[in-house]
Amino acid sequence: MSTATRTTPTGTGRPGSSARPDGPAAPARAASRPPARAWAVGRVASWTLAAAVPLLFLGTFFAWPVLALVGRGFLPDGALDLSGFADVFSRPRTWRIVGLTLAQGAIGTVMSVLLGVPGAYVLYRCRFPGVGVLRAFVTVPFVLPTVVVGVAFRALLRENGPLGFLHLDGTFAAIVAALVFFNYAVVVRTVGGLWQRLDPRPEQAARSLGASPARAFWTVTLPALTPAIVSAASLVFLFCATAFGTVLVLGGMQYGTVETEIWIQTTQFLDLRAAAVLSVVQVVVVVAALAVAGRARARRERALQLVAPGSSGAGPARPHWAPAVVTAGVLVLLALPLGALLLGSLRTGDGWGLDHYRALGTTGGRNALTVTVWEALGNSLRIAVDATLLALLVGCLVALLVSRRPRRRAARRAVGVLDGVFMLPLGVSAVTVGFGALLTLGHPFGIATDLRSSGILVPVVQAVVAVPLVVRTVLPVLRAIDPRLREAAGTLGAGPGRVLLGVDGALAARSIGLAVGFAFAVSLGEFGATSFLARPDLPTLPVVIFRLIGQPGADNYGMALAASVVLAALTAGVMALAERFRGPAGGEL
Amino acid sequence: MTGTGTGSGLAVRDVVVRYPGAGRGAPAVTAVAGVSVDVPVGEVLALLGPSGCGKSSLLRAVAGLEPPASGAVAWDGVDLAAVPVHRRGFGLVFQDGQLFPHRDVAGNVAYGLRGLPRDARAARVAELLDLVGLPGYDRRPVATLSGGERQRVALARSLAPRPRLLLLDEPLSALDRSLRERLADDLRRALVATATTALFVTHDQDEAATVADRVAVMSAGRLLQVDEPEALWRRPASREVAEFLGYRTFLGGGAGAGSGGGSGALAVAAGGWRVLGPADPEPGPATPVRAAVVADRRTRRGRAEVDAVLEPEDVRVTAALPAGGGAVPEPGERVRLAAEAGAVAVVGG
């Protein structure tokens, strides 16, 4: 039809066949059914499908295993038995673990925030040569696999390590330091991302009214940043309180979290009831932290007037000396474990060399492993590709769904509930998920082959763990799209599908690059659930590293360090690549 | 389907738009309270009203972006309730353009031209960019455009698919004054050149008069008057319309003393008075003349003015001095003021 040939601006007069180039299919459909109902039915059907896929996925591979495991704890003989609570909470060990978890979370969070806010100022508010490199460097610890962080801190703090004279190996302080190392980037990126876009004029107004830089910061800037700080803090608390790999490597039997305790109770003591009770405790803590984070985020999205980064000529070129000194110190401290890891991997019995790297082609001293480290790396990469694709599919559907603001109040509330539900895997014990999957997912839906021995569960469960990160990366970008942009596309004749693809899709594409990076890095480093599900003949790299450090012999330890360096380089490389592909509008965590 | 309009073009019948209350249990807000208006093919109608009067909501209801709570929107007698936004063939220009940030200028303009062969599309894009005065801007990223250029691109984008009706939602309000005046002229020219039927929402009286063939004055969700600009300014239907059009002083019925406003009263625009000098000829009987006491003197744009209180009505007005110069009256002095011929309207005539 007709845009090109039409001579009058009057249109054709039939609503179903407006003068659009893409119209031909519609009039036929409009003729056979009342078009309004057809459109409404089609819309409801497609959104229902979009909701069903992630719900089914997370229901099968997350909710069912977790509930089954919890159920086994409370329904040992098919009847509800809550005596487990009384029993578990009457053990001094439980109280010690819960106390340690909360102390670790609280101290780790406070220190991360105290160090991270000055870091956010220096790295995101100030401009100086090399700031981009430093921002990337700060992110490295966050994407490092937890097992690698543990190994790096051991390499730094052990008796003959660079900081061995501090005698911190195996102490609570070492664990907290490792958690801060890991979570510093969360605070810097979340707070910095907001700070960068904060309109600087209120602060300038405060200065012109006679406020010192410190007073302007306390009275104007800090209140504006508070929502981001609260949001980051609750996330850090979550990561600290549920830390697994790092704590398992550094804490040994003496220190632990609820998460490591669940692992110990299930694998060492085979006490499912205690594990179930602890899982419930953890879920309560996690839900509370997520609720705080959600509230803070909602306030942040509502209240702030933001500008494009750098568009307001924002920020001093030269940072104030105090935060600069703090940040410089932190950057050195961040480099120490990484340096110790690298040095340790190059140190051989009689000097320096690449012996440990050459050993990666073997199965270790006294055949510590079933496969070579390179084969384990291959497993990790293959699994990560599958897990990333799955996480991306599910995560993008969730983000799309949750970013909608439906007109009906009930639908809006449903979207809000889904938003929270899809975040749960972020905090529910990965150990619980892994062990629950091992117990329940033998033959789901009557599938003939045993999924547990097929190895298919590993990427699936890693995807479950990665979905919240994908959602958190893509969702802010989708939410930030002005709804009128979609309306503009609609008035230009774009149907709902084309709007989705041409506006939402095109604008979110850059942030999807970052989401791919996160998902891939998470999958490469996932340890909690994978340690249950990986087949003995198909272990992943973190599983192999954990096995190596548990084995006697300096050679095996050296191999663990070398393998950690490889894994660290790989995840950091993936993240660097992802950062390159994302645009200036990419989402922060 | 029932024909709700009579002629060709847009027919809006008793449209009501309501928004749900902000909180739980909060009452719904009625933005448009039953509006009926027609836009015949080829006409440009301005919806003029203060901010918050519901004019943008009415526009969104016409576009199909907001479902009306009741009433009907029809085109050429065919009800559009069942037609989704993207099949109405109505273009829409937003106040801030809403250009697609990930596409360049040509990519934005070509967005609605899907289905055309590549060279036809390119030709149409070039034609439109010419029309809006931006030839050669094809490959420019939209982020590099100024505010005025953005609105020109937004206009070109909306006109490109030859919409049956173009909806403009305060397209010039975000621009500074001189640019706004120039763009209003350009907008009128582009709409006439393409013979586009348009509904133009604005809160600026001058803009409405420049761009539109007819102006509909809206307040608190209702239409107060629909008329051609000249007729509207000469005979505003009520004091409310007159006040919104810029009339400040309301005189009693006819040229004599009276009840101060209401039906049949005269209204004089702000800045519509001048002091009668001794050398001036006596004005005709149609011109309101009032005795007044000078209250203050000042200068505006380099010309001396006086503030004076009209004696019969006891209202304060500003009056220009006679062109011939002469002595500026002192405060307390009694003068005679005459309303400029073009600044007088009959209210509710």
From TrEMBL, chain A:
Gene Ontology terms: biological process: transmembrane transport
Region called Disordered, residue ranges: 1-31
Gene3D superfamilies: MetI-like (1.10.3720.10)
Topological relation to the membrane, as annotated: Multi-pass membrane protein
GO CC aspect terms: plasma membrane
Transmembrane spans: 47-75, 95-124, 136-157, 172-195, 274-293, 321-343, 383-402, 414-436, 456-478, 557-578
Family matches, as Pfam families: BPD_transp_1
Domain ABC transmembrane type-1: 98-291, 377-578
Keyword Magnesium applies: no
Cellular compartments annotated: Cell inner membrane; Cell membrane
Protein name as it appears in the record: ABC transporter permease
Native species: Cellulomonas pakistanensis
From TrEMBL, chain B:
KW Transport (keyword) present: yes
Recorded coiled-coil stretches: none
One Pfam entry name: ABC_tran
One annotated GO molecular function: ATP binding
Entry-linked InterPro entries: AAA+_ATPase (IPR003593), ABC_SmlMolc_Importer (IPR050093), ABC_transporter-like_ATP-bd (IPR003439), ABC_transporter-like_CS (IPR017871), P-loop_NTPase (IPR027417)
Domain of life: Bacteria
Domain ABC transporter: 10-245
UniProt entry keywords in alphabetical sequence: ATP-binding, Nucleotide-binding, Transport
Entry EC no(s): 7.6.2.9
EC class: translocase
Name under which the protein is recorded: ABC-type quaternary amine transporter
Source organism of the structure: Cellulomonas pakistanensis
